[in-house]
Amino acid sequence: MKTALIFIETSQGKIKKSSQEALSVFAGNEFNLITCSVGEDSSLPIELKSWGVKKHFVCEGLKTYNPESYQNFLAQVFETTQPQFFLASSNNLSRDVFPRLAAQFNAAYMSDVTEISVSPELVVRRPLYSGKCSAQVTYTDESAKIILIRPNQIEVKCPNKSENLDVVKLNVEVKNSRSQTLTIESGETEVLDLTEAETIVSGGRGLKEAENFKLLHDLAAPLGATVGASRAVVDLGWVGHNLQVGQTGKTVAPTLYVAVGISGAIQHLAGMSGSKNIVAINKDEKAPIFQKATYGIVGDLFEVVPLLTEKLKSL
Ligand code: FAD
Q: Which element (helix H / strand E) includes 290?
């Protein structure tokens, strides 16, 4: 039986949805499922059992993020388990650590994967040239593959199994580390990061000034949405770069993306055209965003957005 190893990330004691998506790839397939994670989390093993995981490696000693320590831990797990596939969610952390691991073990590496099937052979798809086309890659050899999956692409399907789970604790020690984490600062809000959000309300230059982003926060609240932005408003200093969606910002794929006062430049579309439903609010009926929109509202955002917010609050 083939072995699949999955790197698990948690939030508030629960497996993150992006990690659940990686686990879902193996639901219904016969694999020896092994997971690994960093940090103590007593409820994690119980949750992992329902995914059919047989063995879990945990590194409890790491207090701060350090790519070399993570690499050291993951390398120990990799060497012990010899997986055919090593999956993780595609994010800043994994894109920092996993290429090092791939180089160390001479494994094939693919990030930002949007579609994947693992049986009878590994077939993945990833966007190229800012989403203008995509490549489908079929792997025919048996060597190890490291695959990072873009969040919000795979349907979560928990098989609700009840396996015996073996938990193995590992320690890492990196001497003469070349990198050091000085501080970790938490983000401005408690809401989900853009890359993991199911619903995003994004604003552009049509909002006229920074203070008007309050309109978007008001709209985002009843939707439980994360607020994003176009690069134009980031460059104007209205919001931080961590909110930027697009070619030089974050790539998102929520179920609902509401673009408010955003023209739909190709560089913006590159980061959000994978959204399942796009609602565009723009006063210019010829704005390119309408070509990608599932629903379009031609109108003044200063009239439309408060009306929408009131309606949503009353539901
Ligand atoms: P605009 O293009 O100015 O559009 C504002 C829109 O608001 C217009 O369509 C207008 O009709 C509408 N509007 C105005 N008033 C109202 C109103 N009252 N009610 C309703 N609608 C109204 N951009 C990104 O977003 N992300 C990126 O990652 C990115 N990377 C880039 C990388 C490179 C190398 C380059 C060259 C550019 C990049 N850009 C990126 C910039 C991109 O080309 C656009 O300039 C930018 O997306 C425009 O932002 P915008 O839609 O907010 O502004």
A: helix 289-292
Is there an atom of ligand 1 within 6 Å of 250 CB? no
User: Is the C-beta atom of 209 inside 6 A of ligand 1?
Assistant: no
Which residue has the CA at smallest separation from atom 4 of ligand 1?
263
pLDDT in tens, 224-259: 999 999 999 999 999 999 999 999 999 898 999 999
For Cα atoms 99, 104, 110, give the angle at the middle one, nearest 5 degrees. Answer: 30
Residue 149 alpha carbon to ligand 1 centre in Å? 28
Does this model's pTM top 0.85? My answer is no
Peptide bond into 120 cis (omega under 30): yes
Give tens-digit pLDDT for 93-148.
999 999 999 999 999 999 999 999 998 899 999 988 877 889 999 999 889 999 99
